[in-house]
Amino acid sequence: MSRNLYTNMEWLPPAPADFAAQCKALLQTSDTLGKRVQHLAGHMLDENNLTRLAKVIRKARDGGQSLAPLMPFRLGIVSNATSHFLLPALEATAARHGIALECIEADFDQVMQEALSPESMINRAQPDAVLVAVDYRGLPLTACPGDEQGAQHAVASALAHLDAVRNGLRGNGKALCIMQTLARPVESLFGGYDAVAPGTLRGLVDAVNRGLAESIVGSEDLLLDVAHLAETVGLAEWHDHTLWNMAKLPFASAFLPFYADHVCRLIAALRGKSRRCLILDLDNTVWGGVIGDDGLEGIVIGQGDATGEAHLAVQQAALSLRGRGVVLAVSSKNTDEIARGPFRKHPEMLLREEHIAVFQANWNDKATNITAIAKELSLGLDAMVFLDDNPVERQLVREMLPQVAVPELPADPALYARTLLAAGYFESIAFSAEDAQRAGFYQDNARRVALQAQAGDMEAYLASLDMVMTVQPFDETGRTRITQLINKSNQYNLTTRRYTEAEVADVETDPDCFGLQIRLADTFGDNGMISVVICRRELDSWNIDTWLMSCRVLGRKVEEAVLGVLCDEAHRRGISQLIGTYLPTERNALVEDHYARLGFLPVDAREDGSTVWQLPIDNAIRKPLPIKLRSIALEAAAEGVAHAA
Amino acid sequence: MENKAIYERLTEIFHDVFDDDSIVVTPELKAADIDEWDSLTHIRLVVSIERSYKLKFSAAEVGRLKNVGEFVDLIQMKAAA
Predict the structure, then answer these.
(1) How many structural domains does chain B have?
(2) Is there a shared CATH topology between the A277-456 domain and the A465-644 domain?
(3) What CATH number does residue B60 fall under?
(4) What are the tens digits of pLDDT across the range A407-427?
(5) Which one, out of A4, A83, A628, B16, has a CA that is 20 to 30 A from the CA of A328?
(6) pLDDT digits (tens, 9 = 90+) for A68-124
(7) Do A84 and B40 lie within an 8 Å CB cutoff?
(8) By the 8 A CB rule, do A326 and A317 touch?
């Protein structure tokens, strides 16, 4: 349900199972406390977990511990409702946005008194800003159905009331105000006619909201659009009369994390902490499919196809953001020329090369590429947002570069754009002509930049994936998928030989053939079949007829593990060496050095660019790998071959 | 619904809400027994239980409760309804 996207803030990764223990551990070492608090705050947290984290933040502050690099901010809160339950949620959520928030809370329902008296608690505290958390029940806003003059009068006096509060707080405490639009009550008087008749509560609330928005322009004050929050999650859920009657909670507490995030986005924006650059993955993010395998005609993008329209919406969102000053960049595991193809030639693409400031398409890990992009744009990593459909890439970037915001994405690409925008990374409190042109200042020319050193401990990350590789000979169950991979893979494919399902079936029974199907599972789930190898026996050699792999598992040492299996199986069958061939195509430059990297020796290089390689089994270097091996039916297959021989 | 299962789930919820794993949830447990059990934490507790059991309580139902045992009775009654 899409409401959960907002209520739970599902763009955030789920809280670790030992969140409570991690909170407790925070205070035991004061070193990098601020950073660790921010890291924990970056998860999906309910009210109880926010309260838990806020407790740690308060203890740290009371104990004089530094929360740097979190930026201190003091927020006053006045409300006609119970505001006490907002405090822990706000304080913990602020850490997510790089702010060390301290709240000063006025007594219940003392809004005007606090504003007007120079000696009030809020005014004496001189906070950086005051949240004026007033809802429709806190304003002189009595419905007068049918009375046009009365309606105008009611709206004017409500706005005057709010103005008096703002002027008081500014004059006495020098604080800027965060004003809230009003969430409209759901109960109607006439029905649909409420929208027509003057003086209905609905009409009054709408007019106050409009007037309030207009009054923000030219002032220092900020607008928290609570009406929009409530409508997004549903007014009927937002207004909880039981909680209001019981404890004067202004809205259902299930929405507290969502509300708090919006308050903190504003504060972060005020302190210049909004993000400024969107880095896009390409395959299955900007378009459907894999350009390297599916080609320009095969990728799905554009009107008339549900998946194509979903990805088009991602492009539209990126372009709109660019129009308001967000810089766009690309990080994709691809050959540069191939990745640029759709930007140059595909008629349905909205994004073009001129929209992209930095275009990094190569086979390096994404953390390294994102670091290079940040450096080229002279932006901090904390200004970056990285959008990628692949959970392994997302987690890698989160671990290596915790400053980069990486939204979780749902399975359905139709929700990618919505999720990205729901996260509010680019919250803005003003919009100028300069903003509209800012993206262009970065001289968008899709430039490619040199890479920095690898950005972190890749070995540790790979180990944390708990990869399990399952290897087994070709069989009937795998046949269809094997055939599909053989006929579809273009990039990580050494020979690009295509076979029919019947030919694949022949491999199963031919005693001189060895076909290996490889599956990979990791902490994120099962990737299914991701690699296929076919060897053909020639005397005491195995000629590697086919070796292909899905690029989804690139950079995870799968090919090294597969080589280990090949060597073991060859040994079992009395084979003494492997012969590998690379046949170049327009798509497979990625594997030009495949055999060299695996320790094969060059034997032959032909004029057409193809190369032949050799590896005596005994020379194979066996390194420990972060992949657990599960082998099925290989032993039996080897025995069968021995019998046949 | 099994009484025992309800107490087990309530124990988890109490530990989560009060951030204290040492709380032993018994039928006699009441607000005065736990320092942090003030009116706002009470709301957090009620809302957490509502969410966990996908139930809604009225103000009157919640207001009548004297201890956890009565809360368990209420949960059983509402879940059966």
Answers:
(1) 1
(2) no
(3) 1.10.1200.10
(4) 999 999 999 999 999 999 999
(5) A4
(6) 999 999 999 999 999 999 999 999 999 999 999 999 999 999 999 999 999 999 999
(7) yes
(8) no
Of the residues A7, A47, A108, the best mutation for testing chain B's interface (the one with the most B CB atoms within 10 Å of its CB) is A47
Q: Which of A333, A342, A281, A337 is nearest to A586 (CA)?
A: A337
> Given phi > 0 = left and psi -120 to 50 = alpha, else beta, which region is A525?
left
According to the model, what pLDDT value does residue A645 have? 46
Q: Confirm if A495 and A547 have CB atoms less than 8 A apart.
A: yes
Strands A358-362 and A327-333, bridge-based pairing: parallel
Q: Where are the domains of chain A?
A: 2-270, 277-456, 465-644
Per CATH, the architecture of A465-644 is what?
3-Layer(aba) Sandwich (3.40)
Helix %, strand %, coil % of chain B (to 5): 65, 0, 35
Fold exhibited by the domain A2-270: Rossmann fold (3.40.50)
Q: Is B43's Cβ below 8 Å from some Cβ in A?
A: yes
Q: Distance (Å, rounded) from C-alpha B17 to C-alpha A113?
A: 34
A139: left (phi over 0), alpha (psi -120 to 50) or beta: beta
Total residues belonging to chain B: 81
CB atoms within 10 A of CB A402: 17
- Is it true that domain A277-456 has CATH number 3.40.50.1820? no
Chain-chain contact of B48 with A243 (C-beta, under 8 angstroms): no
Q: Which residues pair with A368 in a beta bridge?
A: none
* Residue A226 contacts residue A212 (beta carbons within 8 Å): no
Beta bridge partners of A520: A469
| Residue A197, φ and ψ in degrees, nearest 5 | -70, 140
Q: Residues A183-201: pLDDT tens digits?
A: 999 999 999 999 999 999 9
Q: What is the mean pLDDT of chain B?
A: 92
* The one-letter amino acid at A212: L
Parallel/antiparallel/unpaired status of strands A627-631 and A467-473: parallel
- Whether the bond between A511 and the residue before it is cis, its omega within 30 degrees of 0, is no
Answer whether A253 sits within 8 Å of B59, measured CB to CB.
no
Which strands, in side-by-side order, build the sheet including A71-79?
Answer: A99-105, A71-79, A129-133, A176-180, A222-224
Rounded (10°) CA dihedral A340, A346, A351, A352: 60
B39 to chain A, any CB pair closer than 8 A? The answer is yes
